[in-house]
Protein 1
Amino acid sequence: MHPDNPQPRTVSQVADSIRAGALIAYPTDSCYALGCKLGSRDGIERIRTIRRLDDRHHFTLVCQDFAQLGQFVRVDNDVFRAIKASTPGSYTFILPATREVPRMLQHPKKKTVGVRIPDHVVTQALLAELGEPLLSSTLLLPDEDEPMTQGWEIKDRLDHVLDAVVDSGECGTEPTTVIDFSGGEAEIVRRGAGDTSRFE
């Protein structure tokens, strides 16, 4: 897919396949991610299997904009300002989930979920076409320290477990910075591509 001007027909085809239950690998402003339809139980299980995740793992809802993000998490005014100042960008925020979030996506004890708004042309085009968030997780394989960054490499290694790989050339090489706001104060869970200084 063209990195600056994604072809509408291709974007539409990928969105249709996601609606039909496909699990894809796609580029973001941090690194490649696995993505599927919001309510896809099969997609969640496949992501868990590929990454060997337990039920305490925070999945991320990748949202097009702030309005969409606000449907799925509860954000008070102070947190709103902090997140607004950092989006779009390479941050994932953990927040209390609203009723719009399927229970299987929420942390079993905390009832929280991760959300982010990426600064990536292809991802934004896909989210606009979908009209809802993508359920996502960083494409970081078990026992590996770094995520894969090349579309052809992902296809080569994961073709048997993915339905599609969206390749638009180079993307980031570092996962997002994860900030947990579920307790009211900013807690840095993972230092990644986003600058943490504003949250310290």
Protein 2
Amino acid sequence: MTIKDTAEEWEVRASDTPFVGNKTSVRTDDVVMPGGSVVHRDYQVHPGSVAVLALDDQGRVLVIRQYRHPVRQKLWEIPAGLLDVPGENPLHAAQRELYEEAHVKAEDWRVLTDVYTTPGGCDEAVRIFLARDLAEAEGRRFEVEDEEADMELARVPVADLVRGVLAGELHNNCLVVGVLSLVAAQNGDGLDALRPAEAAWPARPFEA
């Protein structure tokens, strides 16, 4: 038996968008169920995101601490951001986010994993990259504002992050998925066996 997600689309009889926000919206679809009944399904329409697990030559991960108002917490996270432009190359977006949030560049990029954050209520797809061979970026630092103006940066050993995840002390989904995927890759075929940075991403098609 092959364990693999597959594309499928059930019939939608009607669709409405009762709310449109700055970056996302809410859609209501009338979806035909296998038995023939029609049910309402509300979900957030999201442009997609990228995240970067930046691993330095000492085995530490670059993390940032940022206030997240919906959960009323300051969370430790890995650099991440929205795919603001339809069809935007996710690698370019990830490189931009690493520069803007940490003023860091990387020479080696690979796809660590792809996830849907909350597929029962949102269509957000996230591509998490592994970035290695890190160096300080050239030029001026990006001008931050709002929550980002209060960000803290740190480099934390992988083992400390794994401990924090399993202890229920770290909650950001990209950090949790990224760190555990990193350890799984290290203990499996190795980081060099990960997919190339320009690997196809059916959830958010792009041009190389």
